[in-house]
């Protein structure tokens, strides 16, 4: 029993040494730690928050009346819009050199027309369709102008209904209307523009992105572990390790644990970033994701040992691992859900990614526990066990053919 614990400790120490080697390798650190941070920063910028429209309205006031000034003030009061006033010649020159794509012109007679209850129109000078920003600004300008027209129409109708003999009463009503309109304006504009890059009712999209990214990075660790194993065999490092108190079984188990540990550093960082950034759930969901990730790391580390044991050169190991990782990502539905129908759905059933990602999404989206994902857990355990058996059979310490 004591010898077994000592052997396990030596295997664990080998895994610790692998982590220390990873920490002093700047290239591996950049790929394993910095790249996930950058990717999650991009994901947060793209999906993690609402994007509120901000635009500038180029306004030419050729009227100068009270209603024209009210239009400019109301438009500028919108939180999405800032107004820049220009002369007509200045706006035309800016349009000619494409410095702006759209200008709003308040024509002469705008204020008088509104006060008389007539139909008035804004003019839009624009290049093409005015651009995305210009179209939104134009829509908001029309909404503000329509509000002014309704206010003016209401005043005109009230004055007409009261008759000319009730002028003082009409003036009192007009003052009340003006006071009410001013109060509503100070309460904040009723028009706003908000753009969401993803539907609030579809949080499963983020769950799939997080699960797919996590599985993808764990699968990438296959490349590194298999390549390192071949390089160490060619350099004689494995043979020299056998001159220590470590035997063949302990060395093999140490390499297996090293693959898990190397991927665990990256996976835990990804999970912490994902839960902290997108608030995917609580302690139960985080623990469930850790359990599924640990089992995936065991399966992936065993696959890495198989590739490293069978490959003759580091290039062969890299190409085999890259092919396997790419196949799993494309046909496993890392970022796009694959239905169970058709040839693609049939092929996806033979990928580890498909079943693991579905299990992770069930934990994150459907409130299920990790222990309920019996199929995915069984698949990862069987993959790890078969991989270890095959790798142990093919494992050797040198290209001369010494077998473990």
Write down the Rg.
34 Å
Structural class: alpha/beta
Major beta-sheet overview:
4 strands, mixed
Strands of the widest sheet, in order across it, are 3-2-4-5
- Mean of residue pLDDT? 78
- Give the uncertain stretches in residue-range form: 1-5, 184-203
- Alpha carbon gap, first and last residue: 23 Å
Please indicate the percent range of residues in DSSP E strands (runs of 2 or more). Answer: 5-15%
| Helical percentage | 55-70%
Q: What shape does the CA trace take?
A: elongated
Number of strands: 6
Count of individual helical segments: 15
Q: Would you list the SSEs in sequence order as H and E?
A: HHEEHEHEHEHHEHHHHHHHH
- Whole-number tally of structural domains: 2
Written account of the structure:
Helix content is 69%, strand content 6%. The protein has 404 residues and is an alpha/beta fold. The protein has two domains: 2-49 and 201-394, no CATH class; 51-195, abc type-2 transporter like fold (3-Layer(aba) Sandwich). The strands form two sheets. It has a four-stranded mixed β-sheet with strand order 3-2-4-5, sandwiched between helices. Helix 3 packs across helix 6 (131-162), helix 6 (131-162) packs antiparallel against helix 7 and helix 11 runs parallel beside helix 15 (374-394).
